[in-house]
Design goal:
Length: 455
């Protein structure tokens, strides 16, 4: 039924949008300068993924949300990454590897004015082996005269080349239609299908925080490389670990075990790995090195996990290295630099000595419970009614915006939709989130709140 000026179908579509599950992931791969970033900009309809001129710059963001023909998905931009530090082939191979591990479908971009190169052929091999759906984008077809060049790319054996000008937008609509056909409705690793199966955990953190040490410590000799079990999965990188009487799946551990020797490319690999692992996981255990200052890279990793909507546990590792003074400063750093995830359970551990390892599992269970919490609509509205009465929104321009009612549209992570009589200021929204957390817990999970304003 319509409530206080909102139409029923309006409410329904709002709830559907807010309650969506995990989105399928599209990766855009190809050699440097074929136009990947330009294409990603086209797809997301923003200028956000600005084409970087500086080589070697690791972007903060890798994943963007996009929508085409009413369907939403994630786009992973691998363009503009430091081919200079890694070498072109290594860089392109890493992208393909990423696509293989994390994406549900791939757009493979080729510069049709150049034609297929050896590097392109090598990527085709990797993509074929992966068996993910591939849409071939013949880019830089700026006009009809370029169509023949596009046709020549049938030779790659990836099916129909879609002639596109990422720069001018020509042909991108048709290509996106093909992308939608290739993309599954929901990601391959949907949460729904995993019910009852082992929880998927991503162990993330910048190089040298102690990920492999921690994995070895918790897993001991017991761990099973999933790939070695016949017919379990084609993904060679997940490990099953027995902890606290339960089986957990640590995803994407190949990047942890296989140490990257290329010192210069380490950040690049770390970012790709983090994004891939977080996409696949339900919960991210973010490791921080207690012996060093909290860095921008640490924050970036935290942000990736939060933006992906995963449950989160903060593990402060190398606790054995702390003296009184460092411990004092560390606490202050955590407060100021990681204040945005004050809701995450925290464990102070040492992978080296084994300190507090037994606290890891309870923290993970707490975070997953928060992530799956559902507040019944009746209880939520009783709470909102009291909150609005006790703490009304400040009056703005003679009007007082009011929350009329709300509902939890989804879990994993919890998503709320509030229907309001006017625009709610950011400060008030934060206040509502804080009070929701005080009232209902949500420990270890980001929560999404969207506000629908009656016009
Ligand atoms: P990336 O390295 O694959 O991400 O490539 P970029 O998106 O940075 O593009 C490399 C260069 O190709 C830039 O100068 C773009 O402006 C140009 N470019 C990208 N798409 C097109 C296109 O469709 N037509 C033409 N003529 N140039 C393009
Ligand atoms: P990764 O790159 O995140 O996998 O980190 P590693 O597990 O390879 O650890 C990097 C370095 O930190 C190694 O020299 C480890 O021995 C050391 N290390 C890991 N955990 C601890 C710890 O809890 N305490 C101390 N003192 N050193 C540690």
């Amino acid at each position: 039924a319509a409530q206080e000026g909102f139409e029923a179908d309006e409410i329904e579509s709002e709830l559907a949008a807010a309650g969506h599950g995990p989105l399928p992931v599209l990766a855009v791969v190809g050699r440097p300068n074929v136009g990947k970033s330009t294409l990603v900009n086209r797809i997301i309809g923003r200028r956000e993924a600005v084409v970087e001129d500086r080589p070697g710059v690791t972007r903060d963001r890798v994943t963007y949300e996009a929508e085409w023909a009413g369907r939403r998905f994630k786009v992973v931009d691998t363009g503009g990454w430091e081919q200079d530090v890694l070498g072109i082939d290594a860089s392109v191979a890493a992208q393909a590897e990423f696509a293989i591990e994390a994406a549900d479908a791939v757009v493979f971009v080729v510069d049709s004015s150049v034609g297929a190169t050896d590097t392109d052929e090598a990527v085709v091999k990797l993509l074929r082996r992966a068996g993910k759906p591939v849409v071939l984008c013949a880019n830089k077809v700026d006009g009809p005269s370029g169509e023949a060049d596009a046709t020549a790319l049938w030779s790659l054996g990836l099916g129909e080349p879609h002639p596109v000008s990422a720069l001018h937008g020509r042909g991108t609509g048709d290509m996106l239609d093909a992308v939608l056909e290739a993309l599954p409705e929901a990601p391959a690793q949907t949460f729904g299908t995993a019910v009852g199966g082992p929880r998927r955990i991503a162990l993330v953190g910048r190089p040298n925080v102690g990920k492999s040490s921690l994995l070895n410590r918790v897993a001991g000799e017991e761990r099973v490389v999933v790939n070695e079990l016949a017919g379990t999965t084609r993904d060679p990188v997940d490990e099953l670990v027995e902890l606290g009487g339960k089986t957990w799946k640590f995803v994407d551990t190949a990047g942890i075990r296989r140490r990257v020797h290329l010192q210069e490319g380490a950040d690049y690999y770390a970012s790709l790995r983090t994004a891939a692992a977080v996409e696949k996981a339900e919960l991210a255990v973010v490791l921080i090195d207690a012996s060093e200052s909290i860095s921008v890279q640490d924050q970036r990793i935290v942000t990736m996990a939060v933006e992906a909507g995963r449950a989160l546990v903060l593990a402060i590792n190398k606790w054995d290295t702390l003296d009184e003074e460092r411990r004092f400063y560390l606490e202050r750093e955590i407060e100021t630099e990681l204040g945005q995830i004050g809701w995450a359970p925290r464990v102070n551990v040492s992978a080296k000595t084994g300190r507090h390892m037994e606290k890891l599992v309870p923290a993970m269970e707490t975070a997953l419970a928060g992530w799956e919490t559902r507040v019944p609509t009746g209880r939520l509205n009783a709470f909102l009614g009291e909150l609005v009465a006790a703490h009304p929104h400040p009056i703005r321009g003679g009007k007082q915006p009011r929350i009329l009612f709300g509902t939890q549209a989804g879990t994993r992570p919890p998503r709320f939709v509030l229907f309001a009589s006017g625009f709610l200021e950011a400060g008030y929204r934060r206040f509502v989130e804080r009070r929701l957390r005080e009232e209902f817990g949500f420990e270890g999970t980001p929560i999404h709140i969207s506000v629908r304003v009656r016009e």
